[in-house]
Request: fold
Amino acid sequence: MSFESFIALRYLLARRKQAFISVISLMSVLGVAIGVAALIVVLGVMNGMSKDLRDKILGVNAHLIVGSLEAGIDDYRALAAQALEVPGVVGATPFIYAEVMVSTRQGSKGVVLRGIDPASAGEVLSVGRDMIEGSLEDLEGGFGPAGGPPGILVGQELANRLGVRRGSLIHVLTPSGRSTAAGFTPEVITARVVGVFKTGMWEYDSSLAYASLAQAQKLMGISADRVTGVEMRVADVDRADAVGRELAARIGGYPLYVRDWKEMNRSLYEALALEKAGITVILVMIVLVGTFSIVTSLVMLVMEKTRDIAILMSMGARRRSIRNIFMLQGTLIGTMGTGLGFALGLSLCLLLKKYQFIRLPKGIYSLDYLPVLLNWTDLTAIGVGAMLLCFLATIYPARQAARLMPAEALRYE
Reply:
């Protein structure tokens, strides 16, 4: 152990006359630790909330969508097969998008009706896993009497509002259901609820319904075998934009277009990123409070150890060594504070993740507990940032100690 390290440790663990300085050093350690722990916990919860929200959005919506600027897509089967040949695409299914009005005796509600292929939709969407009554296969007529009304899946909130459950009849008003000489006119069709799903997102559970492709085409008065587009799932959601560009190059340009989930939800994720940045800045201020405590403790230590510094310099200690003593002491305080903060923050995150003892009000959030996702990039940035701030806090007191003149310091001793 070098004499700089030895003296720094002795000063850090000062007793008797310097006990007050030790208390200030302890407060500095605790200040840094609390700031680091708060950063870890808050960023872990925000990452967990963002991932949960992303998973729910991407469960209902696909990672990539191929649409048409014209009336629709006729050769969608060939397009889906071509999309599956693109590296990274693991599932493809056609869909029809329409807006309809559903009603029962208890009320009516405007909803988004999506026509899907039950055979391939499960490879792209999470509707099959979200079912709480019925199954995705029931859309093809597996529930209810043969030749009866077409099947439809509704969200749990929509089912509660309309007072329906599996087996109930529901009226569907389509804005363009029947073609006449005057154009398309609305038509009311009776459908049977063959299943109820719950995604955890109120917007989807209250305003989304599914039907099979054939039934959706019939409801919307589409005579040809045409769909709105083809949606796909990719292996890595973070590379959806890159896969989308490659897919767009393969299928050509107009009238087809490709959109990825990042583009379709850009405003939402930009708002989440801005919120995360704002909270991070606020929490960094807590770490800064701890670093200012380091400055205070080192300045007081320099004032207390003026005679010791002068004696060391008189015995041949270089100014660089004096500077290193106080920089090392501040770095030790920062290291202990950062280490303690990581221990507290990671322990609290693991407890939150395992026991979920902080509950959220049901019906307000998309889940009833605080999710935690530890990102090693964030943890590395927190550790490096905290150590850097603590090191910068040692520069001024250490330079002042190194500038001390031995003769002036010992003149009145």
